[in-house]
Amino acid sequence: MRHLPFVAAALAAILLSACSIPSLPASRSVTASATIAPAPGRAPDASMAPTMPAVPTATPLPLPTVAPVATLAPELTNALAQEQQVLIELYRRVNPSVVSIEVVADHPIVDGNAPLSVSISQGSGFLFDDQGHIVTNDHVVEDGKQYQVRFSDGSMFTARLVGGDPGSDLAVLKVDELPAETAPLPLADSRTVEVGQTAIAIGNPFGLRNTLTVGVVSGVGRSLSGPASERGGRFRIPNVIQTDAAINPGNSGGPLLNIYGEVIGVNTAIRSDSGIFEGVGYAIPANAVARVIPAIIRDGRYDHPWMGIGMRDVDPLLAQRFDLPVQQGVLITEVVPGSPADLAGLRSSGRVADAAAQGRRLEGDIIVAINGQAVRDADELVSYLELEASVGDTVQMTVQRGDREEQITMTLEARPQE
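Below the sequence we write its predicted structure tokens.
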């Protein structure tokens, strides 16, 4: 096997030589010259050596002159050039307000040495106001002991955690210094976000700082699994924006922007079987940021309005199987004792699986509207509570109770802390 390189080299030499042989003229007869033997004892005379005919060499022909490929006419590229310039200018203006976040924790004592600080995660964030408050994801900063942020100009500052909210996956850090001419980013009204509009993400994927990716809003009104409840199950994060702008580990906490440079969402998660971006990313909507972040800055926390129910979507198949009076709505499967729902007198059906196993009907209340707004599934109910209601509000629930539709008032309380 050690001789293979030499064999390959020899073959290559043969190939190269074969490629460089000039073309020969047409064959013709050649008369051989007689060879004169030298006299004994006398050195051969070079002049007496036979003369071989010279082999003509081919003169290389010049390559034809070819003009460069023509550029596209301006009238064909004006729209693309304008879009390109928008992205360039947007990046120049927004990027100074986007930061890279390093989360540090103490390393356990080893061999009697003092604890060492180690980086446990990295993410992104953006400046919320001129007082140094930085928005990021709660899952980026959780379990950290110290934090430091890097701005696009290379400036680095330590930051302190003001507070976080697992229920919206939002958190706030604060720095006491800002680079010159760094300004907060404006929030858009995320209720106006439409599928198909341009979506631009700026952040620090895989620690690669100051990265811009572009896509579209792929969907709205999505929901993500939130923190676990005390009685099992999980709360939901509603009104989430879906995008195909590339989002990868490290983008979490960075802004998702419209073409005006306004924040429409906070990049928070991806749907992936491989752990890297596969075309589906999610962002917490800007309207949630507008509600949650000021409360965290003021109180260090955010209280979510809470009813105290377990629920399941009603669809036509479920309605047909259990002979329900409506085709869509939210079936109450549990009422937490002492909760607003319990105090309001809402009724639970119990678990649907138990009812099916026992062959009995589902007798629980079905919520079909809240404050006059139709409720077709749990996402719509949670969405209304999160964006339209607050702790202490009294809401009117329209429920289907058997064959009757009833109006029930309820005063919302704060969700129990996890």
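The two ends are 66 Å apart (CA to CA).
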